[in-house]
Amino acid sequence: MKVTEKDVAYVADLANLELSEDERRGMLRDLNSILDYVDRLNELDTSDVPPMAQVSDRYGVDEAKQGSERFAYASREDVLEGLRKSLPHDEALANAPDADEHFFRVPKVIER
Amino acid sequence: MDVISLTIDAARSAIQERKTTALALAEAHYARIQKEDGQIGAFLTLSKERALEQADRIDRMAAEGKPLPPLAGVPVGIKDVMSTRGVRTTAGSRILEKYIPPYDCTAVARLEAAGAVVLGKMNCDEFAMGSSNENSGYGPVRNPRDLTRVPGGSSGGSAAAVAADMAVFTLGSDTGGSIRQPASFCGVVGLMPTYGRVSRYGLIAFASSLDHIGPLTKTVKDAAIVLRTIAGRDPMDSTSAEVPVPNYAAELEKPVRGLKLGVAKEYLGEGLDEEVRAAVESAIEKLKGLGCEIVPVSLPHTPYAIPTYYLIATAEASSNLARYDGVRYSHRARGVKTLSEMYRRSRDEGFGPEVKRRIMLGTYALSAGYYDAYYLKAQKVRTLLTRDFEEAFTKVDAILTPTSPTAAFRLGEKSNDPLAMYLADIYTVTADLAGIPGISVPCGETREKLPIGLQILGKHFDEATVLRVAHAYEQAA
Questions:
Q1: CB-CB neighbors (< 8 A) of A79 in chain B
Q2: Is there a catalytic annotation at residue B288?
Q3: Fewer CB within 10 A of the terminal residue: chain B, N end or C end?
Q4: Which domains does chain B have, with CATH numbers?
Q5: What is the pLDDT of residue A59?
Q6: For chain B, which residues score pLDDT lower than 50?
Q7: Cβ separation of B386 and A7 shorter than 8 Å?
Q8: B158 is catalytic
């Protein structure tokens, strides 16, 4: 067993999930079964293999450049041309479960 | 005239030549949805007002004798992970049950600009996470070819609607096979373009380095027409590529004679259903008969694709789905006292079991102490999987494989075993990881009359060859 009950509680906490007792039991079983399967990746020696974060990291970039310069094709001037305007206030708030005319409203943030 | 089961060109010309109207076409499709969809469950929301307004616009153009745009009056369905201004968009999740987007997905906007009539939004697995459409928060979709079976997933509603003639075509999204596998299960054509070919602006994110938008259609030519419409750089999506978009439909008729097509033994091994194998082998023979050269290739890291995929996709999902916090647009639990309680209970109530499972797995794979062992390891194997294809494509123009190891399975058959469900994507996930294009085209049926799909994979930004091979096979079959 790689994942313990304690791990499940810790990860649920990180993920902002509560999870019922039943769900935690199921999670323990499923995560262990999936991670056992995933372990087959350790059959491969990857010590000299670079990680691949995304496809555009390999294609379309300027190979001669370093860092963010490689993605020059994706950058643009900081102007609104061709872009959607920012949403009007009322539209941005329209889907909120709770809002007044200016702000999203949430329960008390600071406890004391 | 019969206005159901038309292709794009047939629908558009019928309207142009005034044999029918866009309005009649839309209404005929709505009548069909009314009659058929009760037992299939492909549509989640109908956008009638928007559809009829657009149909009217097209009919006025036709009445004035103006040349119609390529998709004029064509009734389409949009997978419910793509935002539609003023039309509810749920991603198949209860957490977005009441969400009305304030803007349109670029792909949808481009379809409408080309004249398409958006009938409504298609059912799918919650946040596109699933291979059977059983993970939808709004109930499953049933396969029109056999109502006891799944339509595949996650674009199950999109595939079923095309198969049941409830739309001329639909848009789906593909992160691990979610366009091609349901296309295969329902007997339609499903195209996943190259990563970066189609803007994802307005697509509700699942795994950003893997998500693609593409069409599900009745014919390969229709897929070519739709791709041309939705493809190309979009300033609103920095991952959309500045690569010229060919006229795919015009290139379909180029001969396939002399093309080199790869066949990889890793895709024809253990776990492949015998009837599927026979159908795919006979499709390979058919292409050989058309003058293609069949070349054995090796993609040795294939057995590692599923574990790699499920680490990367869940890690990205755990981050992308953090935004559903009950503050701005998603479900909020009632009676909560603190902010932290609000986040947890809202997410607990809003997300279904598979989404929670993937958020947990992804969070675990990214957490301190496990990042290197899981996430980083998977990123490195992703490089190896991509190199396999690069190596193979030095020898061949495209690669032929089955789309899925089996035909459509029964509802409930795999729903209690996440790992068994994940393995349904075994032939499709690697293309997503490598970012190459792929299509599923029908290649026969099992003895039980269930459709089988042939997958054709191509080089980056070479959808033209993928479509050409698929078209040649379709015409010969």
A1: none
A2: no
A3: N
A4: 8-251 (3.90.1300.10)
A5: 60
A6: none
A7: no
A8: no
Residue B460 at interface with chain A, using a CB cutoff of 8 Å: yes
Q: Do A23 and B353 touch (CB under 8 A)?
A: yes
List chain A residues with CB under 8 Å of B242: 60, 73
Choosing from B178, B199, B318, B404, the catalytic residue is B178
Query: Left, alpha or beta for A67 (phi > 0: left; psi -120 to 50: alpha)?
Result: left
pTM of the model: 0.96
Residue A36 lies in a domain: yes
Q: What is the pLDDT of residue A61?
A: 65
Cβ <8 Å between A33 and B419: yes
Does the complex come out with an ipTM higher than 0.95? no
User: How do residues B349-392 score in pLDDT, each as one tens digit?
Assistant: 999 999 999 999 999 999 989 999 999 999 999 999 999 999 99
Question: Do B339 and A109 make contact, defined as CB atoms within 8 angstroms?
Answer: yes
pLDDT of residue A85: 81
> Does residue A71 belong to any structural domain of this protein?
no
- At residue A111, the pLDDT reads 64
CATH number of the structural domain spanning residue A27: 1.10.20.60
| Structural domain boundaries enclosing A30 | 5-43
pLDDT in tens, B78-133: 999 999 999 999 999 999 999 999 999 999 999 999 999 999 999 999 999 999 99
Residue B215 CA from chain centroid, whole number: 7
Supply B120's token pair.
């409504």
- Buried/exposed A53-92: b ≥16 CB within 10 Å, e otherwise: ebbbbbbbeeeeeeeeebbeebeeeeeeeeeeeeeeeeee
Is B79 considered catalytic here? yes
B418: three-class secondary structure by DSSP = helix
Task: State the number of CA atoms in the 13 A half-sphere of B170 facing the CB.
Answer: 37
Mean pLDDT value across chain B: 96
Query: In B8-153, where does DSSP find H-type helix?
Result: 8-16, 22-40, 48-63, 106-113
For residue A11, being part of any structural domain is answered with yes
Number of domains in chain A: 1
